[in-house]
Amino acid sequence: MFFVKYKKQIVMVLAAFLAVLMVLSIVVMALPAKAADVSEKSLNNLKSEQNRLMNDKKALQNELAGLQSQERSAIAEKSNLESQLSVLDEQITNAEMLISALDEEIANKEQEIVLAMEDEDDEYELFKRRVRAMEESSHVSPWAVLLGATSFSDFLARSEVVRDVIDYDNDLMDDLRGVRESIESLKAGLEDDRAFNASVKEELEAARDEATAKAAEVESLIKGLQEEQTYTSGEIEKLTKEINDCSKEIDRVAKELAKRKTYVGGDYLWPLPYPYYSNYITQGFKYRKHQITGVYGLHNGIDIGAPNGTTIFAANSGTVIQSGTNTAWGEYIMIDHGGGNVTLYAHMSKRLAKVNQEVKQGETIGYVGLTGYTTGYHLHFTIYVNGTAVDPMKYFK
Q1: CA-to-CA distance for 302 and 316, rounded, in angstroms?
Q2: CA-CA distances (angstroms) from residue 252 to 177, 245, 248, 304, 378?
Q3: Residue 339, number of CB atoms within 10 A of its CB
Q4: 3-class DSSP state for residue 343?
Q5: Pick from 274, 255, 230: which is nearest to 340 by CA?
Q6: The whole model's pTM is what?
Q7: 215-248, pLDDT tens digit by residue?
Q8: What is the tens place of the pLDDT at every residue in 378-396?
Q9: With contact defined as beta carbons under 8 Å apart, do 393 and 320 qualify?
Q10: Chain centre to alpha carbon of residue 284
């Protein structure tokens, strides 16, 4: 009776209980998965992802540098085109001034031709009137002068005078005609000069139009390059954030892994042979501006200068947890010594130790090289304690 009365409530309670059990089972299933993320494999995967991101960032930085170089070239080309336009404008102005001067000179010559033709016409009219007057007056006509000769010698003398008068008139007409023809020749030369300068002006204007169009294209190119740079810079910022996030996760996983092991104990051994000791340190554990990336930050280890191929020793016994290639570190190895103590050996020319390999203190694990972000042969050596880099010089005898 009781069951029937409260059947509905009992069913609801059981349903709620089952739901709680399902949630708990999911949570329980999730916990091992989270724990599984803290493993050597997950750490390796994170570092591989970080390396990929760094390579992508480097590629974008190279692309950005290329865009900046193109922009500088385009700006230089634009400046050159603007200089050309300035010169062309000046040349066109000079051509216009010369054409205007030639137009004025041609107009003057045309006026001179008109005046010369008028002088020629006037002289010709005088000549005709003089001839008519001589013909009308029997005693001054050429024939009257000749027929009035009293002797043969007088006839010859009179003939000479008449011929001189006629020659004078002819010479005068020839001179007037010559002046007119000379002016016409000068005018024709000026017109040729004007036509040539007009042609030069047209060529200059065509060159100016071409340079103006090219300048507009270059301006558009510069704008496009600037937009691409803005976009690429944004992508670099995104990758930088992803790299930082990945680094934080690597530190978290590394700290978790370090807690699971016990430190092997003992002092650290100097990682390079004699004489490459502390007096060969080229960069200490301090804040500085990176010589390649230009970024100011902590140099989280020490750089020990040594020739290419110098032997590198394991500073302490432990397990190799990383042996690979990184954009910044180049060829590198990381050894876990337990208790959160990890050592890093970077910029190797060759790696000898492999992941999961157990190494002894003083064992050769590789050789000095010039791989990764470096400007000279050296070993970059870092000691991590619980995932945080510490000054290595405090850990040697």
Answers
A1: 17
A2: 111, 11, 6, 28, 29
A3: 16
A4: strand
A5: 255
A6: 0.44
A7: 899 899 999 999 999 999 999 999 889 888 888 8
A8: 999 999 988 888 999 998 8
A9: no
A10: 37
